[in-house]
Design goal:
Number of helices: 19
CATH architecture: Alpha Horseshoe
CATH class: Mainly Alpha
Strand content: under 5%
CATH topology: Serine Threonine Protein Phosphatase 5, Tetratricopeptide repeat
Number of strands: 0
Order of helices and strands: HHHHHHHHHHHHHHHHHHH
Largest sheet: none
Shape: elongated
CATH superfamily: Tetratricopeptide repeat domain
Radius of gyration: 22 Å
Number of domains: 1
Length: 395
């Protein structure tokens, strides 16, 4: 589906006049506000220090502990390369490989989870209808579901936590209809369940849960527009859901807004470029990837996995028929992989394919040999062996 250039111009104009995103947070103090600003700019260490300060000042507040838990968890997911809004696009989150976690980080995540749950449940024992405590417990359960699913690969445990989060926030919506932050978990869960292929819905059906894409999008949009502390996450999820529904102009507008509000967040910039490529605006996508590469060289994204930008550029140039440019981009992605074995293997294999399309068989064979040397049993190595015998051709 081609992207509409006039729509793009209108959205770009609208985004350029946007004010910085200011979140309504609880507890409402400087440390928490600064922590969120740094968190969404991917400065996790500084954000964690801010949230630790807020936690010490609000020892009985589960919100403060949840903020710290989220920052510790997301820092670890990003470090392992498992933080990608593309997981919202369908069932991909079910197939992410288990992530190795430092034992000290695992212990801290489990400790903070226990603390946050204990604080919320202490309030609920004395005040069962405390909407804030229910909301906080739902947030902790949602974070626990993310940890159990993406890190531990404990799917039934993750589903139980997700169900708990969903029902907590449904109850919050009944008790406090103005709490739009609760709509994020409700919406995400509704959309993802509806988007799952039938055979992957079976475990969810066993828990008697149905989903609805339209209701999910409406709920997430409500959270995105409310300006609460879930607004950024809601806009990220909404952008991915809209893209999955081929509503690219609106999806791109949201990601442009986030990218400009948080210029040090590599994921927002990368997703903006990815959306341009997915919507078939290939020249704009190529320019966006090149801009990310330049910004990365200027140390705008100190801890990002920058190889994803030249890899995206390579895919974009391949689609445009520029096989030489694509090969160079994939070579750059290989050089920038910085110890990321999976990224390096993928980049080498893709570069080899581009050399084949150029008719440069010897460089292609060298890249395939490098892939095989990096993993004899991998799917990429098996494909490389086939390509050593028969050159790659576009279908």
């Amino acid at each position: 589906m081609a992207f509409c250039r006039p729509a793009c111009a209108q959205h770009a104009s609208a985004v350029s006049s946007l004010r910085p995103i200011t979140l309504k947070v609880h507890p409402d103090d400087a440390a928490t506000s600064e922590g969120f600003e740094r968190f969404y700019n991917s400065d996790y260490d500084a954000a964690i220090r801010d949230f630790e300060q807020a936690q010490k000042a609000h020892l009985d507040d589960p919100f403060a502990t949840n903020h710290l838990l989220q920052a510790v968890l997301v820092r670890e997911l990003d470090r392992e390369g498992a933080l990608s809004p593309q997981l919202y696009m369908g069932a991909e989150f079910l197939h992410v490989e288990r992530q190795p976690v430092d034992p000290q980080v695992r212990a801290r995540i489990e400790e903070l989870t226990g603390q946050a749950l204990s604080l919320a449940e202490r309030r609920l024992r004395s005040h069962p209808g405390d909407a804030d405590a229910l909301y906080a417990r739902g947030v902790t359960r949602a974070l626990s579901a993310t940890y159990e699913g993406l890190v531990e690969k404990a799917w039934f445990s993750a589903l139980r936590s997700a169900m708990g989060a969903y029902h907590d926030h449904k109850h919050v919506a009944e008790l406090s209809p103005n709490n739009s932050d609760a709509e994020l978990v409700i919406g995400v869960y509704n959309y993802i369940v509806a988007a799952l292929p039938f055979y992957e819905k079976i475990p969810v059906f066993l828990l008697t849960v149905n989903g609805s894409k339209s209701k999910g999008i409406d709920s997430v949009r409500q959270a995105a527009n409310a300006g609460g502390e879930t607004a950024v996450d809601a806009k990220t999820a909404l952008s991915m859901f809209l893209a999955r529904e081929h509503r690219y102009a609106e999806a791109l507008s949201l990601m442009e807004e986030l990218s400009r509000a948080f210029p040090h967040n590599f994921h927002f910039g990368l997703n903006e470029a990815d959306l341009l490529r997915t919507s078939n605006d290939l020249p704009a996508a190529a320019a966006a990837y090149r801009k990310l590469i330049t910004l990365g060289q200027q140390n705008t994204f100190p801890h990002a996995r920058l190889a994803r930008a030249p890899y995206g550029l390579g895919e974009c140039l391949h689609s445009q028929g520029d096989f030489g440019g694509a090969a160079n981009a994939f070579e750059s992605a290989d050089q920038m992989s910085d110890g990321d074995r999976a990224q390096a293997v993928q980049a080498k294999l893709s570069a080899g394919k581009m050399y084949d399309l150029m008719g440069s068989r010897e460089p292609a064979k060298r890249k395939y040999a490098e892939v095989i040397a990096m993993g004899n049993d991998s799917a990429e190595a098996q494909e490389a062996r086939r390509l050593l015998k028969n050159p790659f051709r576009d279908r």
